[in-house]
Structure formats: structure tokens, C-alpha cells
Amino acid sequence: MRKWLCTILLVVLLNVCFVTALEPLEVYNQKIYINNDLYDDDDEDIEQIVPGDTIMIKYYLENLNGTYDIEDIEFEYIVYDIEDGDDLEKDYSDFNLDRGDKEKKEIEIQIPNDAEEDTYDFEVEIRYIFQGDLHQYIYNYTIEIDEEAVEDKEKEDFLDNLSVMLARLEDKIANINVSNPERDKGEYQSLFEKEEELRKDLDVKLVEKEVAFNKATQDLLTCTQGKANIETTVTSVRAEKEMVESDCEALLKSANDQVMWVGAFFLAVIAVLVWWFKFKDKPGFGKFGKESSIGPQLPQSFRPPRSLR
Questions:
Q1: Distance CA 130, CA 65 (A)
Q2: What one-character DSSP code corresponds to residue 154?
Q3: Claim to verify: residue 171 and residue 106 sit in the same structural domain
């Protein structure tokens, strides 16, 4: 009997430890909607978004713990640098989730109308308190605003407006007032003028986008050419620098040679002057011929032998 009680107690303790080790809050599903339409792609990259779109994400939560409630569940999102370099962020009010219960939470992001074509990082954080400890989930997404999607949206809006106008026109035709044709004619004319205005506005926008694209292409070509010119100039300056350095080395060598020869000349002059000052006062210095003191002095009557004449 005691063995059975110990076994049951051990099983209960293991179950308690296992349940405590699990994350009590589970996000068991999530769905993304773009302008209330379900986004079919399961990837975390939300693509082909245009300024003004609304992104909604539904999170499905469940408290897996059967003993304790989960308190202060908070949602917060942040889209980085999407508002002219500033972040778009929002906090949602906290709520509690009783043990074993499920809950659905929605967050909604309104893309700014002036958002530029780019890819933006998007982060959703879920925080909650369980038994006094803070827990959190972080989901990372990217939002890609595509210029082609913007143009498609403009065309779609134009076609929608056109469809509305055609529906109104058909309704007018169905309910034509034969007794007052001039009034109906004026209304038809107004509708056609609005349609023409919409078409012109769309054409102008398409032309402006084409001009902007061509300008960007030209600016890119100009920058590329400018870079090539700068590289050519740098190469030329380097070559001129090498030539100047070579000329300077040649001039320096020539100057050194000249200084050496001038120095040698002055040393020779100094040596001659020293020698002259040293020997100028000695007898016979500077006299040559008969009166020269150089060599032995012979009497004037001396005659050499015949054999030496």
C-alpha cells in the first residue's frame, strides 16, 4: 500500500514539474490581413504594400496552465524608420487570461501615406506576468513597400471609380426621364467629364513617375561619369606627383654635386693659401734661375769637366 502511495505521489510531482517547465502562454496561430483581405503568404515578409494600407495581425492565445491565471498580457509593435525616418509604434492595454482559457488579440498598423518605397523592419512584442515572473515573445517581420504595387493600386482605384460611374450611368439610362431630356443630357455630360478628368489625372501621374525614373537614371549615370572623371584626375595627379618627385631628386643630386665641387675648390684654395703663408718668408722663396736657393750653390767660376759638357 505504501509503495502505491509513493508511486502516485511521484507521478503527481513529475506532472507538476513538467507543467511548470512549459511556457504557460501559447500563441497557437496567427493570421495576417491586408485591408481586411487575408494575406495568403505564410512568410514573415509582408510584400506589395502601398502607402495608406492597413495591416492587421490576429494572434490566437491559450493559457496552457490549468492551475494559475496569466496576468498583464501586453502587446506592443514598432515599425522602424517608416515615418520620414521616425519609428511607428503603439502599445495596447493589458488583459488577463484565466487558466485553460483561449483569447484572440488583434493589432492594426496603418501605413503612412508618405511612406517611401523601401523594406522596413517590423517587430511585435508580447509580454505577460506568470507567478510573479516576466515572460515575453518577440515576432519579427518585414514590410516591403513596392512602387509597382503603388501604381497597380492607383489603377485599381481608377477602375473602381470608373465602375461606380458606369453603374451610375446605367442607372440613369434605366431611369431616363423622357419628359426632360436636356437635364439628363447635362447629367450624362457631367459624368463623362468626370471620367475624362480621372483618366487625365492618371496619365499625368504616370508621366510624372516616368520623368522621375528617367531623372534618377540620369543622375546615376552622372554620378558614374563623375566617379570615372575623379579616378582619372587622381591618376593624373599621382603621375604628376611622381614626375615632380623625380625632378626634385635630380635637382637635389645636382645641387649636392655642385656643393661637393665648390667645397673641393675652396679646400684647394685654402691649402694653397696656407702653404703660401707658411713658406713666403723663407730665403729664396719665389726666386728661380741663378739666384734660386733651391739646390746647392756653386761659384760662378766653376766650369764642369769636358766629359760633362
A1: 10
A2: H
A3: no
